[in-house]
Amino acid sequence: MSEVKAETIETTNSNSRYLLIAVLVLFAFFASYRFALAARGDGGTVTGVSPAGALTQVANNGTAGAGGAGCACCGNSGSSTPVEGTAVADADGVQRITVDATNGYNPNVIKLAAGVPAEITFTQAQGCMAQVMSEQLGFYEDLTGGPKTIKLDGLTAGTYEFSCGMQMVFGQIVVEATS
After folding, report:
1. Which domain does 39 fall in, by range?
2. pLDDT by residue (tens digit) across 97-138?
């Protein structure tokens, strides 16, 4: 009889151990989820999820023609229309423009004159927008530490793409030939 009792106690202890582990795992999951929501600072508002729970893509500050769309993971609700900005040449002959990268790219279509050096300054950003890159132009910058300026030699006429580091939010540099 004592053998049966010992096995029952051992089985109960084993089951209790697994139950305790499961409770700890669930606690850790919900605690980290709550921490992530608090760190986000928007009270847990989720964009890009329909009421039925299906994931939808939220347009960023540009349509596919303007370079692409953003997504909810980047926290960008953005607008569905291209936002154009033209770089202005200073007295030293360098075209300069600043792009606000805090919530998508604004502007997301940058117009430059061909053959004229340019400097594009991207503001500080976090999350998905924390990096800006262009494979075509060969730059990759981390924006978490503050604004970064991309210096470009005079480009030939054409359209060049840039994106966030996750390649989910896009913009364009449109270089136009001067007449």
Report:
1. 1-45
2. 999 999 899 999 999 999 999 999 999 999 989 999 999 999
Is 89 in the same domain as 156? Answer: yes
Q: Which residue carries 């792009």 as its tokens? A: 99
Cβ atoms 76, 104 nearer than 8 A: yes
pTM of the model: 0.58
Strand order in 148-152's β-sheet? Answer: 88-89, 95-99, 118-122, 148-152
- Count other C-beta atoms under 10 Å from residue 169's C-beta: 28
Alpha-carbon distances, residue 134 vs 65, 91, 96, 161, 171 (angstroms): 17, 28, 18, 6, 10
Is 57 part of a structural domain of the chain? no
**Number of domains, the chain:** 2
In this structure, are 38 and 105 located in the same domain?
no
What's the sign of the alpha-carbon dihedral 173, 123, 98, 78? positive
Check whether residue 85 and residue 11 sit in a common domain.
no
Residues 118 and 89 in one domain: yes
